[in-house]
Amino acid sequence: MATDVEVPALGESITEGTLAQWLKKPGEAVAADEPIASLETDKVSVEVPSPVAGVLTEQLVGEGDTVAVGAVIARIDQSASAGAAQPTPAQAAAASTTNPAGAGETPALREDAELNTLEPPNPDGPPRDDMITTLSPAVRRAVLEYHVDPTSIRGSGKDGRLTKDDVIAAAQGKTAPAPQAKAPPAPVAPAAPAAPAAAARPAAQTGDRHEERVKMSRLRQTIARRLKEAQNTAAMLTTFNDVDMSAVIDARARYKDLFEKKHGIRLGFMGFFVKACALAAKDVPSVNASLEGDEIVYHDYLDVSVAVSAPKGLVVPVVRDADRMSFAEIEKTIADFGKRAKEGTLTVDEMTGGTFTISNGGVFGSLLSTPIINPPQSAVLGMHRIEERPVVKDGQIVARPMMYLALSYDHRLIDGREAVTFLVRVKEAIEDPTRLLIDL
């Protein structure tokens, strides 16, 4: 008895997605609720679970195809045994393209869920392109970039799958092999002079050069479209300030152990900045507003979109009612978002909405930037790395841990005076965290 596998609901207003990767092959056994494919939407990646236990007998769409919600993408036979299914003509054609006649059979990489390892066709040789075609595009790029053997890496992803972080960690811990002597080139007889012809590019290549063309994911396409729309629509301007982080650093050093012991989470910088922005938004409500047609919508709540790095691009889950949350609640929420962004398990609802954005490029070493507004919001705060710089305090030149802050805003509804005032309020709250406690 065959059971259809349908594309599940992907979230409000999302009607289709792209089949990014098949996680199971025809003939493989699957358990009920076990993921068999991953889908990409405009905002998140979601996994398609098997509705029943059985054997995957048919894949009705290919990787990269667009599928609508409710569409049948595969069939599961509850009575078949593993290995009994045969590939469809389309799958056979794809296989023949990957492994043409006369090229010799190349055993595919196989994931062993029990050992969390990949079995290689040639464990002693370097990774070949045909050995890594089953990996995701991000992991495949990392393997080629860092020149590591994916078959020797233990995967930390779901069901033992490799992630980009696994590849980078393996590359960083790999011992470089001793250089091998190269045999001198054999003498080559001079070629006869060729007849004059039109200029052409040389056919030979020097060195180890690779190129790879990867189609943009739906998430990356959406990011590109929205950021360009923001530049084309908003009258965007950025104002800067710097902030002395000494007081916040001292507070963290003094209370971090007690805070972690009580709340089970480390005290970070984001909690201070979210609370500081909530305080500043009370004085400058236009920064927390949005423009809809010819109307300005003011919000009496602060839903902060926090930019988080994910394997397939930047995502912005929303910390809702951040102005009413404690430091511990803010830190726990952001830590959970960061973890699930790497796992690809954030939901569409968690990334919908938001009235203001905070982006911390400092974790990647950024000194200064001009962040782009996240429509329909009117402003975004950019945090940057902390470094000691000479500043003047009480007539003396001293070293202080300083951070540059950047506020990009929509000049159509936020005046320069309001933007500067907001940024100054944030600076005052960070340099004197007591203000956060007494609402000053």
Describe this structure in a few short sentences.
The protein is α+β, with helices and mostly antiparallel strands and 440 residues long.
Outline the fold blueprint:
Elements (H helix, E strand, L loop, with lengths): L1 E5 L9 E7 L6 E2 L4 E6 L4 E5 L4 E6 L6 E3 L3 E6 L11 H10 L11 E3 L4 E3 L17 H10 L17 H10 L44 H16 L2 E9 L1 H18 L6 H14 L6 E3 L2 E3 L6 E3 L1 E3 L2 E3 L2 E2 L7 H17 L12 E5 L18 E5 L3 E7 L2 E15 L5 H16 L2 H5 L2
Parallel strand pairs: 14-18, 18-19
Antiparallel strand pairs: 1-8, 2-4, 2-7, 3-6, 4-5, 6-8, 9-10, 11-21, 12-13, 14-17, 15-16, 19-21, 20-21
Any descriptors?
single chain; 440 residues; alpha+beta; OB fold (Dihydrolipoamide Acetyltransferase, E2P); Chloramphenicol Acetyltransferase; 3 domains; seven-stranded mixed sheet; four-stranded antiparallel sheet; 21 strands
